[in-house]
Amino acid sequence: MTDSTAPARTEVLLVTGGGRGIGAATALLAGRRGYRVCVNYRSDEASAASVVGAIRAEGGTAVAVRADVTRTAEVERLFTAVDTELGPLTALVNNAGTLERQCRLEEVDEDRLNRIWAANITAPFLCAAQAVRRMSTRYGGAGGVIVNVSSAAARLGSPNEYVDYAAAKGAVDSMTRGLALEVAAEGIRVNAVRPGLIHTDIHALGGEPGRVDRVAPDLPMRRGGQPEEVAEAILFLLSPASSYMTGGFLDVSGGR
Ligand code: NAP
């Protein structure tokens, strides 16, 4: 019997922000499952190199490519590097994202909003556009899969913490639906995961590195999640095991 979560053909996967956190766990698991993986990073070269080293140590194929995915020219260079170094792209995980210090909405200024929109909305749009141009049968491609990393924040709104970030993830959910329907007949599936509170470095950006442990007692499962638990859901959405899913959402939030 074949493993339905393993790729059936040579799969080439780009994980944006793949050097740390959920992106790193996704890249590692994908490498283990036979995907050729591009680990994109913006500034933390050492972490990205360590993920690539771990994949190669297990016999997999991976490269690290630096690019700020909020910038059109850098996104174009990133996708060209994938074409050249790994072959035709078949899968994209729009994982890179960010948040800023916890505050109320009236304390947020224009510069912060522009940064939040750029990292969490513009970046997945720019990357999805490059992926569609390569994967869509409309342009002679062989199809593919896109998984967006949204957040439970899109449903919850993140009051008193970061309504801007939550709203940006709401936009990711809308894009997931719209793009999925736009390319459904062109061989591309588009779905999203909505993680809850996951143990990664992102919470330090909000000014509270211990946020997951503080909230954990109030969570339905009484614990935060691990990046590897989100990665498993992402790999399911990437794989043929989810072949009839598009425009859908998997909540990986321990019931939150
Ligand atoms: P993380 O540990 O802070 O890692 C973020 C990654 O994104 C880093 O590898 C970082 O690159 C990369 N990145 C950020 N901006 C980038 C840019 N402009 N260009 C390229 N790469 C960029 O975060 P995480 O918790 O794993 O979050 C991953 C995704 O899950 C995000 O979309 C986040 O919103 C979402 N999420 C997280 C949680 C959670 O509780 N952790 C919950 C829901 C959703 P460098 O390493 O080079 O800095």
TrEMBL record:
- Please name the CDD domains in this protein's record: SDR_c
Q: Which residues cross the membrane?
A: none
The reply on keyword Oxidoreductase is yes
The text of the family note is: Belongs to the short-chain dehydrogenases/reductases (SDR) family.
Q: Which residues form the Ketoreductase domain?
A: 11-191
Q: Which InterPro entries match?
A: KR_dom, NAD(P)-bd_dom_sf, Sc_DH/Rdtase_CS, SDR_fam
Q: Which domain of life is it from?
A: Bacteria
Q: What is this protein called?
A: SDR family oxidoreductase
Which keywords annotate this record? Oxidoreductase
The record's section on SUPFAM superfamilies has: NAD(P)-binding Rossmann-fold domains
Pfam families, per this entry? adh_short_C2
Does the keyword section mention rRNA processing?
no
The record lists the organism as: Kitasatospora aburaviensis
